[in-house]
Every structure is written in structure tokens, then in C-alpha cells.
TrEMBL record:
Organism: Nesterenkonia aerolata
Protein name in UniProt: SH3 domain-containing protein
Record key words, sorted: Signal
Comp. bias intervals (Acidic residues): 53-109
Signal peptide boundaries: 1-22
Keyword flag Zinc: no
Region of interest (Disordered), residue spans: 30-112
Amino acid sequence: MTGQLRTTRSRAAAWVSLGSVAALLLTACGDDAPEEGAEPSPDQTADSAQDTETPEDETPDAETPDDEAADDEASEDETPDDGETSQDEGTADEDSESADPLDDAELPGEDTATFYSEDGAVAQVFGVEADDVLHIRQLPDPEAETLDNAAPTSELTLTGRERDVDSGIWAEVETDDGVGWVNTAYLAFFADEQDRTAEFSEVPPAEDAQTLAEGVAQRAVGEGEGSEHLEQMLVRPGEADGTGIWGIDVDGFRDDSVRGERWEVTIEQAEGGYEVTTVTSRTVCFRGAEDGLCL
């Protein structure tokens, strides 16, 4: 009986030892893998959050860095803008804020009405040299942002608004993206075109096309008394080979309604260099034109 009891106790001890080993094995393998459906312990949740968190130095910055913003500001300041016409600035500012009409309270100067206050009327750019442009600005101010540029021989549609400021009279005009302002010193109205070719039929050929074209305009206005105050400028060059239409503006006529003239001289190559083939002129008016005459 005593021997049987000892045998039974030995077997029970063996089973206990085996159970302890199994428990130890399950504990070693199961700490990091909780049973399916079980809630993670607070320690496991914290460890998981630390493993997936983006390091602070790798977090992308949604805002523009200070040095990048400074570069953008510097690039805007580099754009030259020193007058109403500019040989350096040939294109409009692509970053202009708005080209919508501004309220009168937002505009400098005072509201006025001269010859450029008819909504929908068309005025021509005048007195701007061929290698220059006329600025169309956001405000009637020579220092305001440039919205667009007008070529020396282009025309502009008026909106009917004008402002009287220290730098002169400004008119609001239409642009591709809305409206802008130009100084009316560079606007005028043209009368009908006149064929003047017969008056220059005896002009001899010349070796230089530009000299020939400008000579025609100079001959037209004369060189006597009263012409010394006139300003003559090339507003349209011919083709690269010297042929084609050359445009010359003559400004400064001392007349109540006539401001000047625009001459267009067509030149072709000839045996002696270049020769004039056709000549036309248009009278340039201050207040407008009707039936081929200045008002």
C-alpha cells in the first residue's frame, strides 16, 4: 500500500512538472500576440503608437519655408518698372491679383470726364516707340502693378471711366482678363487713312530702308518754321530685310483738335537699295474723329 501511494504521488508530480513547462512555453510565446478579439493592454497600445509615429524631423512642413518666401519676394522686386513705357518690360505681370473694376473709393485722384469717357469707344496707342510698350496698370498710378502691355500700333477699348491724378489723366480700358488703366498722354483718335503716294513719286532710292522711311515723314511735315517742336518716332519697323511697312508717328502739332500724324511707308528692294512704293497717312486727333476729320 505504501509503495502504491508513492507511485501515484510520483506520477502526479510528473504531471505537475509537465504542466508547468507548458505554461512557461505558452507565456514565452504569447506575450506579444494577444488572443483574437482581445483588447490590447495599455502598454501594447503605447508601444504600437511609438512604433508608427513619424519622427519630428521627418514631418513635412505644409507652410512655405521662410527662405523660400524671401526668394519669391526678391524675384518680384527685381522686375523693373520705372515709367508708363518700358523697353525692359515686354509682358504682363503673371502674378497680378485682379483685373476686376475697382470702386471709385479705391482709386487715387478724382473722377473726371474728357475725351476718353465713352464706354465702348476705341482709341489708338500713339507716341510709343517701336521697341517699347504701353503699360496697362491696375490703378491710375505710374507705380501701380502692370496687368498687361499694349503694342505701339495697337488700339484699346475704353470703359468710360477716367481719373485725374498728379501724373495726368488716366483712362480705364479693357484687357483680356478684365480692365486696367493707361495714361491718356499715349492715347489718341485717328481719322481716315489717306493715300499720299503721288506726293513722293520722285523720292530717289536709298541704301538704308529706315532712313528712307523716316525721310518721307520728315519731308511731309517740312523743315521750316513751326516744325522744330515736332517729335518724330519710329513705331513700326519693316521686315528684317528692310522691306514692308514702316510706321512713323509725328507728334506735337499746335492745333486745337489735331495732335499729329501717323505715316506708313511701304518699301521694297530696288537696284539702288530700297525704294518707296506706297505712302499713307492718318491725322491724329485729340477729341475724336468723324467723317474723316478731327472733332
